[in-house]
Structures
1.
Amino acid sequence: MALHGERFDEALDRFRASSDIASAIHANLFLEEALGNAGWAYFSLGDYEKALISFQQAEIQAKNLGATDNEILWLQSAGLSLYRLGDLKQAQSYYEEALRSADASHDAARKAVTDTSLAQLLLQLGQLDAAKARVDEALKTAQQIGDKASELDALFLQGQIAARASSGADTERIFSQVYRDAAGTPSLKWETENAFADFYASRHEVRQAGLWYRRAIQTFETQRSSVQDEELRLPFFANGDELYRDYADFLIASHRSDEALQFLDGARARTLKEGLGESVQATQVQPETPSHTAHRLDAVILFYSLGPQRSYLWAIDRNGTHLFVLPPEAEITARVKSYQADVLKSHDPLREGNSEAQWLYATLVAPAQALIPKESRVFIVPSGSLNDFNMEMLLKPGQSGSQERAHYWIEDVSLSMASSIQLLSRLAPGKERAANKLLLIGDPVATGEGYPPLSNAASEVESVERYFPPGDRTVLTQSAAVPVAYADSHPEQYSYIHFVAHGIASSLRPLDSAIVLSPPHTDPDNFKLYARDVIHRPLHARLVTISACYGSGLRNYDGEGLVGLSWAFLRAGAHQVIGAVWEVNDSSTPQLMEQMYHGLAEGEQPDQALRAAKLSMLHSQGVFRKPLYWAAFQLYTGS
């Protein structure tokens, strides 16, 4: 009942419990159904990666049981997950396998569902005739067997095809029919409302389009608010990402780009802002304008929104906002991945004149270059693949007729990552000096479970602690550096918190990301400080530093950004967090941290101190000049 009522968080709890029980007693039939249903709950919550795994596991169970009808269902469902993940080729392969099985077993119901899914994929590929043929067949089959849900899905797709073919009368008629019958299915209701909005926008009926966009967003927001579990809300925005993009496109086309910026920013970091007790309505009137925030922080804000057709950059300075249109997300992401792969292979992009690094600078920064004087403080509000990409290592080309040579962007600016402008608007400029109390946990006892001793951890501990008087520091190392020591130390009293340890990041369950500490004598298996535990301990820290691999996390959620340990400490209330976007080097990191804390002791702000430490490495003659070593760490700003 919870699944059919679209109360997906409740349904997921039940299905997970059922699958655990069924697995324990080897009840494979119940296990297969529980896995598949859990997949649907994950899918409906927007967590397509977990959904795919559940569907694939369910399909294997169904195949072993000889349950052909369910095997077809889970094949089609896995294909749908792959479609949402953007892997259209693999999705098509799953759909076609499901269709072959459905034809062979004369399963009309599964054939109708899969034909509709394949038609949607073909429409995405621009193959209108092939898509129409498929969906017409699906609708005919659904009507013959009296499957109302499949009939509505096929009808909705027919409306989308009619809209693409500029058949106005057919489009309105079909969407109206679907909308009448979709009242009990919120997801289909908001999709239909958004489709109506897109249709009226294409006909330049501005008032009607705006009305339907707002209806769609309200329906989506009502459904999102029903998800009570914070971890399950993280992926949910993926269901509404298209709604927000479409409405922003509409506002921009209507010459309301500032309104589009406020609207998109209101959708960023929703779960983080809710956890911090902030108001999260996208339409809420903000306490100050973005340009006022930039002025107050003496900074330039670069807000990115990557999309399938086009991307946007808003550059915000004290004088106002400036909109630039960028290439589609796929093109930017391909370049980001290519460049990052070169960096992780220890290439020297500056000496090699890396073309991807130059293209990315020319695309992502150069349009707004005139608004960013040298030595500017820059906040990046990223999108998509930019969430786990350090833009400091972009290559700015040399200027002909000038003595300026090609160089990394970090040479020009002090850069921080921010979750949203709303959160930045609540950030103090940072001139005041907080009480300098340090909690330092690290150099743990090796667990012997794939986490070897960190040979330079002790030296990093020593280099950090010496900047704080004995009475202002709590240092827990070796056998004292156990997970429970973090909470027992009352971390809310410290202005600086620093970890020196191994880190692990989970893509499937990002709140299972953890700092690997010492195993307690009484509970040797309990040696990890998990992100999910961190968020429940409120903080007031000026800066948390996670000197560990992958402290930033591996999972990027639409609207929420990168979620892992860094996100967890921001969620707990830390003002700024330093985390790593890839595996860090045990030899270079202590040098970086020592120089950063030297800068902090001299009164520099965290972004300035971290930048100076990185520049020191960059300007060295050894191997540490490469971005592999200094660009791993990023500074994340909360509120």
2.
Amino acid sequence: TEDNEGLEVFFRLINLYFTRPKFTVEGFKAVVNRTELNLNKKNVDHETKFEEYFKRFNTQSLPELLPLSAADLKNIDLVKSKQLNTEAFGNPREFVCVVVGSFDVEKIKPAILNYLASIPNTGKNFSIKTVKQNIFPNGISQTSVPQHRRTECLTRITFPLKVSLANNQISQLEIACQVIEYHFKKNFIDQMQTTHGFDVAYEFPLYPTLQQPWITLQFISEPELCQNLIKIVLEEFKQFQSKGPSEEEVKAAKAQQISSDDYWENDNSYWVMVLSNYYLWDFSPMNIINTKKNIENLNHKNIVEIIKTYFSLENYTIISSKT
């Protein structure tokens, strides 16, 4: 976050990173030591360990998605690091710089021309690798993550989508997730007087591609109630998928999503992300601008079809923390 003068300094630093990167023995050792320290901290962070195990299990340890390890650090040297950096940052056309906020475009144009437009192209194009195999495990799998410092059981039930999505269909999936979450929270409150922290989210594990997305049902319980709650959630989801949501649930979920979108559309960091996706991966920002209209046009029948056809109760994973 900067003013106009700070932007010029920012552009200059970008230019220097591309044109005059520094690779010294001292700097390399400092980066390796700091990274090793962060890895050690990560190993005792139960939330990070759970996230990494979740991703590894649901992608069947796809090499490209494995986190950095201490063994990886031992295979890195200064010469190799410099070579990789030169290749990765050799073509400035593969990068975008997004500035969002209140500023005078005419005042910052000279700095853009001086520092960004002048970066030479010295490298080759990088390409996104397409994963052809199915990354999600077949059938039904259940596992646990030992986490001795947790006092509660965190559980995620993940369903791979049976359909492919285009970026203009994401808002439909968002509403479906909101409907599922609303339904479960209401049922939990009515029957147990607690929501169990129930949350529903979708994810594109192979981002920036939209290949092989999944949705996750997450909830928290006391360790002794964990397995019973898993059975309750699965049985309720089975009935919910069979009957479909009510008109009231769809209406409430749509209102909640519109309210959330209204909030984020006033956040600069949100627009940095949206515009970066647009320029890098051809995600149209019009899908965001028209989200409210698209949501209002979604009817009860659309949501019922998504919930009934996008997921299969014959293919999912269950991952729980184990105290």
3.
Amino acid sequence: AFNRAGLLRVGALDELFTAAETLGRLGTFPGRRLAILSNGGGVGRLAVDQLLALRGTLAELSPATVAQLDSVLPEGWSRSNPVDIVVDADGERYAAAIDALMSDSENDAVLVVNVPTAFTSSADAAQALTRTLGLRPRHHRDKPVFAVWLGNDDRATATLNAARVPTYPTEAEAVRGFQHLVRYRDAQAALMETPPSLPEDFVVDTAAARALVEAALAAGQQWLDPIATHQLLTAYGIPSAPVMQARDAHEAMDLAQPLLEQGATVAVKVFSADIPHKSDVDGVRLNLGTLQAVHAAATSIIARAHEKRPDARIDGVLVQPTIVRPKARELIAGIADDPTFGPVIVFGRGGTAVEVIDDKALALPPLDLRLSHELIGRTRVSRILKAYRDVPAADERAVALILVKLAQLAADIPEIRSLDINPLLADRDGVIALDARVAIAPSRKLHKGRGHPRFAVFPYPKEWERTITLSDGAPAFVRPVRPEDDALFRAFFARVTDDDLRLRFFQSVKHFSHEFIARLTQLDYARSIALVAIDPRSGDMLGAVRLHADADYDRGEYGILIRSDLKGHGIGWRLMTIMIEYAQWLGLNIIEGQVLRENSTMLAMCQSLGFKTRLDPDDSTVMVVTLPVQGVKVPEVPV
């Protein structure tokens, strides 16, 4: 949850203060490569060990830097990172070595570690560092420097503090501070990243899935049966092995016969809603090639299940074709339920030893492909998805797409309380679910406000997609903004005049940075909505309206912008009416906006919609428009 919010998570109270000092003294910086300089080889190597333990990146020294250091350091110095300037280093040697590392483009930050010696005082070494930093050109001062002065020299600490160089008591804490900056920068960058688009064939059958779940709930079931589970996965495009139910060994033979005649082998598994893990009762037989083997397996499985679980209801066995994927990896993927955060997507190493191996990671839905790949990367099993020896790489994108589909399923069917796919086989040809179980229960709300009742991070509000008719009879498709709409907004802004941009943003806007557009496209759907009108023929964006609610869901602030060459087509009016409808649905009492006094067109439309207007007491060039929305009936066409 912290990662999704762009926050830095720490593991202990002392680390909290270290992180606060580091982030308070140093701004974010590009890169993650750390150069280490010390006058003691041992402590420098300890710093490297800590960096690698935290999955940091040790910088390489450029040939030019090595040559520069050769000219100022004694013969026999390390000639690599960490740079050991040798125990007898004086202030001049410190200064020369620090300057060389600060000038090296192969690193992004420098850690300087001082060990007390009889050759040079710690205070002199600190002065050499701060003096060198002060002499560097201003445009070269952005590279952060971290300092560790062992021995508690008060004069050295005072010198470093005066120069606002962050200091740490040990090399381990300094490296951790550096990694805090890297992780915080990565978390913030992830908030602004444009996710990749989903495949065009990403189509789900929500109605079919909902019908399966509602029928099971109406029958008083807490688990979907295996056949319904297979149908549920199929409705969301998740490949799964077909499954058939047999009440006894003779029915199992009848179901297996067509498969065996085709040359396939079959799997027979125990069928009981009371036995979530079939292997607990030795309830799985694979690669059965004859009818006699199927009969024997079914008989044995049913008897064994009754013996080991006399309390369980045994409904027979399941018959499936054996899926032969000899170089596939066994994974687990699914949906878990957290009492605080609601649905959570689970991914990790699968198989019968899943609890023992305990290699899994969690993520809050909704997910896009970038977040899914990040979730996969937080597990150890992600390493064997890559090629090794004679095993080709698995299709990681197919695995990531399964996680996206599970997140969408959790959003569409909140009655799904948990879903386990184990094993999910993955190889170079894609993925297939061999076994799955789904727990269901009536949905419950976790928060106030409208929208999805159980998500901590609100999913894309698909229910607000609709087609409208413009004044000239042309259709337009209206939908909520998505994070991947960066290019759509850039093309739209290119067709909006400078004056219209000024009227919308209250200032001249000449450059649309990625960060600027990310703030428009990456929304918290719990409190914000932005609706775009799109030409269904060309795919061009015609206009956009946005609404942001306060934390109490009492008031909301809106903004709207229409393409300059499309004014007078009724786009603005229709977007405003949908926005008002959304505010009513959200439970807001008042919506308001700020409009420049010179923007007579916008003010006239607001008055026609029933807004009250008044002069902003803090700015005589701005009008404040407000509308009590509950109970308001807005005309569908301009008046």
4.
Amino acid sequence: MIWVYFLRNKLEAFYCFKKFKSMTELQTGHKVQCIRSDRGGEFLSTDFLEFCEANGIQRQLTMAYTPQQNGVVERKNRTIIEMAKSMLHEKGMPYFLWTEAVHTAVYLLNRCPTKALNNITPFEAYSGRKPGIAHLKVFGSLCYVHVPTELRHKLEPKSTKGVFVGYATCEKGYRVFDPVSNKLLLSRDVTFDEENAWHWTDKNGSVMTTYSIENQEDLDLKSDSSNENSTSTPQTLDMQESTSPTPGDISSEERRTQAYDHTPLKWRRLDDVLAQCNLCIMEPEKYADAAQDESWLKAMEDELQMIEKNETWELVDRPTEKPVIGVKWVYKTKLNLDGSVQKNKARLVAKGYAQKPGLDYNETYAPVPDWTPLEHLLL
């Protein structure tokens, strides 16, 4: 069984894992015992490690630059991405709908028989029920969403033309994108024309490829069970087309602002997302790892030169009656706004946490004067 979560940033990975763990353990009655992942920073955070230790979850990490050690996941990711790309290209759809294509690909793969499960579907192996397939439609096909009488006048059309982009997760309905109003509709009353597709051009005849969501949280996925037999009302999610001013109208300040792509991660071009998926930035955890890379050796050399230049240290004889505090290297990869690597940065810091109160230091305080006497002194 496959689950997919779309993250705004890597910090959300820990939250999604906890949500996934609670859901699967409640549904299956089995505890998560082991998790295998790469060495991404989101999987090596202190919160993630402490959570796994507290819940008795064994960690299995791949070695650096060896994705084949987690081959099942890596190959499944490739299958999903290739399937999503094929669906988009088949109907000539713009890449900003890549998340919808990935979501639909996962939905279909969970309902396809596989030899690994003796030719049953992952859905059946997980839930014990055979999945229904009568509702499956061709991704990207033309469709018409019924507009309830309460939402239209007598002379207005009874339906809205759109593009089928997937299946609702928390409701029994379809996800339909309206390219004219830039809205995402959720409805169960949809008529499909699977032989035809939308012509992805605007009034000027140019290809429509740039859209952004104003508020992704506007989509309410709560269903009303009391209206199960009534006509459903399509839910909408507003989307605005981004426009670009002419080069003569852009100031230097605006150019610096526009250098960063503010489009939400969910709606960026699929090419950009694939490029970032293939980029794995490894930050060494100890000196032995960093010493094997020329770029990190140069970063450490630059740090030592800067320490000497700023006269940060003063060489003294080693005291015999007091313990000596050690030092450690901290490594960090600095990134540009577009996600590319700017430089490797190394810091040499003291192990202050090794000091013991009463032995290495006594009570400390920072005196803060009151403003009134300080004002008199200044006068």
